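Might you be able to check the backbone structure tokens below? Thank you kindly.
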Amino acid sequence: MVPDWNNIGLFTAGIAVGAILGAAVTLLFAPASGGETRHRIARRVRNVRGEEDVWDELAGELERAAAEVEEDAAREALTT
């Protein structure tokens, strides 16, 4: 059975978005001063922007892996 890489990518993206939203909600409801909360949010945004490259790289790797699996499946289908 060939894994559905599109669904795996969507699942991974969903986890990432959920983590980001969870962190944002936690910061907004944390008992801190407005200035401190804004500072925390700004720091988190900078961190997320830095992680964007990591997620883009992971997406590229998943796309390449999916293409390889697709090619292998096509070759296997032709030989059987």
